[in-house]
Amino acid sequence: MIVVHHLNNSRSQRILWLLEELELPYEIKRYQRQASMLAPAELKKIHPLGKAPVIVDGERVVAESGAILEYLAERYDRNRLLTPLDKDEALECRYWLHYAEGSLMPLVVMRLIFSRMGKPPVPWLLRPIGAAFGNGVRKGFLDKQLATHRQFIEQHLTKQPWFAGQHLTLADIQMSFPIQGLSARGGLDDMPATQAWLDKISRRPAWQRAIQQGGELNLPD
């Protein structure tokens, strides 16, 4: 039985979605974020970094979203439901699988951090300075960078229905979390094709089952 060490409001939701798409049995070990938004220390008993997602499959422990998705697909997606057969689509799938965490998520996370520099747990005397500094970084750098990425993603999804081509793949599962982050931190009004993609995945029965199992995502803006 695959065990998913699942942290609320985290990337581990993607793992549940893949497991539901593949109709694999699994067990969830649940963890709640602390007031600091960090994972609890118990996760370090599973993996030294103490972060989610982590899965345990027999004797094997696998961490990192992309590595987990690839491991599960290689071992269990025997009908290649989510793995492209076409070489070009396979390369496209691999690109978005790495782009999600390598290029997009660092910007999304940094925007969240700098937007909270005027809020607790920053000491109240420093909050005005923190807010001014955070707003300056966001407006002067992060928002401009994110605008470029938003345009890049939107243009890509106007050309094809899924990230790797004509079918749902691991790329879509990996991109779901950062797209939800963009939606929570600025909306998708200027990204109609991306909004349509997000609406489409949210209607999938496997997605809905994953939400029932893992809980709704409530990403801070």
TrEMBL record:
GST C-terminal domain residues: 86-221
Q: Which InterPro entries match?
A: Glutathione-S-Trfase_C-like, Glutathione-S-Trfase_C_sf, Glutathione_S-Trfase, Glutathione_S-Trfase_N, GST_C, Thioredoxin-like_sf
Record CDD domains:
GST_C_GTT1_like, GST_N_GTT1_like
Q: Which domain of life is it from?
A: Bacteria
Q: Which GO terms describe its molecular function?
A: glutathione transferase activity; peroxidase activity
Catalyzed chemical reaction(s) = RX + glutathione = an S-substituted glutathione + a halide anion + H(+)
Broad class of enzyme this protein falls into: transferase
**Ranges of residues in domain GST N-terminal:** 1-80
* Any Gene Ontology CC annotation: cytoplasm
State which Enzyme Commission number(s) the record gives.
2.5.1.18
Coiled coil residues, start to end: none
Q: Is Phosphoprotein given among the entry's keywords? A: no
Q: Identify the keywords attached in UniProt to this record, alphabetized.
A: Transferase
The entry sums up its family as follows: Belongs to the GST superfamily.
Q: What is this protein called?
A: glutathione transferase
Q: Which organism is it from?
A: Mixta gaviniae
